[in-house]
User: Fold these one by one.
Assistant:
Number 1:
Amino acid sequence: MRLKLNTKIVLGFIIAVGVLLLTSAASWYCIQQLAYYTQRVEHTYQVLQGTANMRSNIRDAQSHIRSYLLLNDTAALTSFRRTLPEIHTNFELLRQLTLDNLNQQSRLDTLELATENEIAYLTTWTKRLPGTAAVRELILGDRDRQLQVRALLERVRQEEETLLLERRRRQDFFETTTPAAIVVSAVLAAIIVLWLFTKITREVRANEELQRELAYNNEQVAHRIRIIESLANKVVQGDYTVKISDQEQDSLGNLATALNHMTQTLDTSFTALENRNRELDQFAYVASHDLKAPLRGVVTVVKWIEDELSQELSPQMRQYLEMIKGRLNRLEDLINGLLAYARAGRTEQKLEEVSVGQLVQDITELVVPPTFRVETPTPLPTFVTDRLSLQQVFTNLMGNAAKYHHRPDGLLRISCRDLGECYEFRVQDDGPGIAPQFHQKVFLMFQTLRDRNSAESTGIGLSIVKRIVEEKKGTIHIESEEGKGAAFIFTWPK
């Protein structure tokens, strides 16, 4: 029964749309025809007005010549010359208005010749001496030309009058038909809408019970989904011991079982990961302590040699000892760098309000030579974040910019841009720059673009920066070309 009723409603909509389309098309056609014939009637009036203007212009032209010959009034000649462009303008207007009428175009061709002949004839009288005899001669000589022009204009007018009668008849017809078509369309539309309303009302009543049942089921499903969402939120917060007690044998029940297995697996995996991290921390501390002890011993022995055998050491031997001390210092920096890299991003975060402007100023005093200039072209924000991590990032970037600069009086610019959920910081220098092919290499461990003997570097600093930024869910990249300075751009969550 439901399928049959739905079919009836669909068929009813199809019939309704069909009838409405037909009646709307008829109404549209009537409106279009009414508009067309209204425009054509107006067009005919424009042609009639154009013929009247032409007749008036020709008459005025002769009148101005008569005034000149009769009264010796040179102002009449000026008026005559002013009338000539009006004659040409009105004639071109008539030509454009009758482009769709070949008969009228043919008459206008003849009219054009007659008009030009009349203008040429009248123009010759502008050079004649004024007098009564000249006026009489002008009128007698121009009679035939005037009659020809008037006859041609009259034929044009009669043709347009005939067209006007036909177009007014069609206009009146569509003025009557259009409202009738609109009324019929409205009545049919009302009848069809009432019929469809009756059918749809029955369908709605039949579906109300089904909707109540669906609402109850949806409420139950929503409740179970909220339980699953609560579990997911707790997992995001790091609680992997939660479980869902849903025993229903459906898709949501199967999902709950799968989520329970997932949380159990995650709990086991993260427990093992925490154990590995503790072991890694223990290894880092032990390795750094055990490696530094013999390192300090070797440094002490070198110092003893320099102090106690200073008189016996040759210049070559002193050079060798300096090389040993340099290598020992680099080894100590490598050990400290490895320990810092292992700790990066895994230390306990201490959130506090940080003024980035003050932080940059403090770091400038620590790692930037006094001969350098540090500018902040944009205001630097104050927000709550992990101060130690942000300080480590700025320290490494500003320290590297100063260390690898090719001049002792470089310029650093620290700027910031608010991106909504995070800030984008930019540390830019005017140093030697970094070629594009090395933009990714500088973030790798133990990678440096300078000779190790010309600038002491472990190649770990930028690796630590990248790790800290990525631990904060930020990004970092380089904008630089060789010889044009370098800019390190990183994002930091608010």
Note: Residues 132-236 form the longest helix (105 residues).
Number 2:
Amino acid sequence: MKKRLLITLAALVMASSLAACGSNKAEENSGTESGGSGSGEKTVISYWTGDRHDSEFIKEMVDEFNAANTDNIEVDLVIKGDDFDQALDMSFQTSEPPDVIRVKENTIQTFYKKGYLAPIDEFLSDELKGKFPEMPNLNSFEGKRYSLPNYGTTMRLIYNKELFAKAGVAAPPTTLAELVDVAKKLTAAGKESGAYGFAQNFKNPGSALGRSSRVIAEVSGYGGFGYDFKTAQYDFSHFKPIIEAFKQIKDDGSMLPGVESLDIDPLRAQFAEGKIGMYLSFSAEAGVYTSQFPAKIDWAAAPVPSIDGSFNGASGFLGGQWLAISSKTKKKEAAWKFMSYMYSESLLQQYQEKGFGISMVPSVSEVAATPKVNGIEGFLPNQYDGVWPVYPVVAVQGTKSDDAFFKYMVSGGDLDAIIKDLNGRYNEALAQAVKNGEVKAEPDPNFDPKTLAGKFAK
């Protein structure tokens, strides 16, 4: 208890330091807008997040902030599911958006373009700008910062070591052909206990394929969202063998029944019980199986398989952002004080050491210990991890690629025709967005995805 109190006080001292580093404007407005200690009125701000892997820790930190801050600020924590993006859209349409928003590398660009985010430059001193790396199009746009980094996320194949041993499989698959074969063997070995070889959270195809087909494409040398940086065009043809392999796993009966309605937390719960042989996801899973769903099995994480066993790219090391302030908030000062607390070094250090993510903040990574969390060693950055450039997000008309691919996996059809249609619609949307000045897309014939890998390995 004494240690916890010291950590809390340290975090609040750091929060005060961060807040003090803001501009004079921030200091002048703090008494009226934040409900400071002299106002006598409690200022309630809402923080929305779609993260669940760290939910217990975040709840604890929010509770400590609410109890210990001297500015009479109370944070209302709202944890959403895979419907986070839709719920946020609705909140802005109904004029009831949150004050602080959890942003990710695949959402911040969209939220920025929709006008959901407020720049935070007025609060940032030169010291803070140097401490928290700026990453264009990941936490800054057009010279203004909208978020700060916390942790980076690696992507891996998570597998049930006990089921592998029972099936006589010596090592995780390294190719798509092996993935299909191993899924079949695991299903056969798990028949008596009701275990299946493979699963993904296909209730949300975008979330499922963003954890699986995306990273398989990336390590194979192709853009994980279908965008070709060499040609500045969308080309989904590289996904053909990946989607065909997933369909084969389902057709073989090697995929957990009911994946069409499976969300990520129910998937995790099933894996923790030993009902799933393997799936692909983020490094957050290490913390999940320690606190959220304590694993009843022996499990590990391995590099994801590539299409043919060759590594011609980089496994996406994701991150560069974490919290952002809503453009619609009327409590910006209070929101920043809460963000300052969340970005304190003591809290960020705990975040890594508890296994929720690998810090991207140099001053934190230098002092934070390697998490003592089961399975974390498989997620630590290796020679295949790297940060890909940001691809241009376009508002495509009709069925999105993830939904089209999942429909094919379930119902079949002409995959070549599906890919041709996707390429046509996505490139048409891209051309229109470039014409309207919404995005930039310039060919880079010298782009080599192999050069992205290994920059985070220790």
Note: The chain has 18 helices and 18 strands.
Number 3:
Amino acid sequence: MKALVIGGGIAGPVTALALQKAGIESAVFEAYDTTADGVGGMLTVAPNGLAALQLVGLEPDFGEPLRHMVMADAKGRTLGRITGDVSRVVTRAELYKRLRELTTAHQIKVEYGKRLVDVENHENGVTATFSDGSAETGDVLIGADGIRSRVRTIIDPQAPRPEYVGLLGFGSYAVNSGVHGDPETMYFVFGNSFLGYWELPDGTVAWFNNLAVENPDEKTEVPWLDRLREAYGDDMPAKQLLAHSTEAVAAGPLEIMPSVPHWYRDRMVLVGDSAHAPSASSGQGASLAAESALQLARCLRDIPDLPTAFATYEQLRRPRVERIAARAAKTNSDKRGMGPITRLLMPLVMKTFGAKAFTKDQNYRIDWDVKVS
């Protein structure tokens, strides 16, 4: 079997590595002309994601370790604390670079400047045509081409598009702010707006936040950093962190994929954000993509009939990813502003439901050696 993997970001290389582990040849086709070195913001790879990446050969020694998560209000009161296995906070650029190096070491072909135009399914294979006029034929085609997937629209022209959740993301660094944190701990503060932060080894505090903005394309004459300072007001520690930051780097609008009705058709199938893109609020986007890559590879390894393999893959993945996406949507609602009743109930909710759901998500592991039935 030969697989054509469309998309060379994060999900594409992981899928190719998983397929190789399953004994399946693949080639990756990336739309952009060059690699994405240096592109992207910060992300968290959860323990379940690290376990999945380790199965394809990527050791969990990148980024900064994170073991504890503390929920707090804008007056500094702790609402809840969750401790689990180590996650890693990493730039997308670093994770991308490590995966690119791994695919090179494993001699997996990656071609650039291959923007997918169309797909033709025939009895014994599938042919992809690209905007440069070239074509490639294989046995299956896997769409790992992200939240604006071309493969998704080919599978289903009526497929939903990503939805803006009403929040813009920003991030930066605060120096000599007087704000400190415990080692391997990330703090999530719910006040006038949401803010997250953690302390780096040199004492600098890295922070990220979300600002409720109705129109993601809104233009403003007021610098975003000033807009953020106004929005947070006297919230702590936001006031200190923003006062000691020289810029607010826009990470873009937060988006979420509605439930995608059709994950596969004929010899085409979706993986990662093209099928399921929970909001960044989930902290699980990259981890879920890695899991899906492995589960798809297992199904193709163990089930010779393609429709059955694809259906089994979807059955293994859809309930989990949609449950996490639904919880992220609720988090987005809280980030847009919690009322007094929600703030009052938050400690109880965190202790009763938050830690349990968080632990369940992170404890998920794929048993590669078990045959899929």
Note: The first strand starts at residue 2 and ends at 6.
Number 4:
Amino acid sequence: MRPVEPEGISITVMPGTGEMFEIPAVTSNGRATILFIEAVPGGALDAFVGVKGPDAFAERMLGIVEEHLPEIAGRIDSAKFALIDDNAYLLTAVTPTVRRPYFMHNGTLILGCGDSVFLADPITGQGCNTASYAAEQLYETLLAHADADWDESIGSEYWNRTQPYIKAVTEWTNAMTQPLPGHIAELLMQAAADQNTADRIAHWFEDPTQAYRSFFEQHNSQPFPR
């Protein structure tokens, strides 16, 4: 398939249904475009259940693109469309979950961080950010209480440290699987013509608390000045 122009990572969003990433890659078998679908369960893009084997996977992917993503389909030579090798596909399902990251077991404090307790939908790519943030907060909590008994109060403090960030990540991520709020759609249109706005939106993925504020706290006014 012909890549997007200019070449780079492209995202096509279908609110309430899912999204398609196109990712240029170099593999041991040559250049390829990775087609990566994030499907909302039960939606039109959630169509791979029961698909087995590389040929069936490629056929289903092509069918989905031709039916639902015509701009992408227009860049595909369907006669030559195939996986770059027989192992070049992956199917997985994720159930987003946020658990309390501490409990006591036989008098011992058990603490967790990262995806073991904070598992967000990968649509905004926040797994590594969340894990590293939680690890930092865990380190700061334990350092502050290095000489104290590690009891349930330590776990509670750790949770209180991480909870605002986790709330921001999960609520922003959940919002991205639904139709975008009007003020966010307007902001994206502004970004198409203004590099400063585009840069600030890109920074959401580094600091999701900014995305949360733009989605939920600044909707009555323009988030970024022109």
Note: The mean pLDDT is 90.
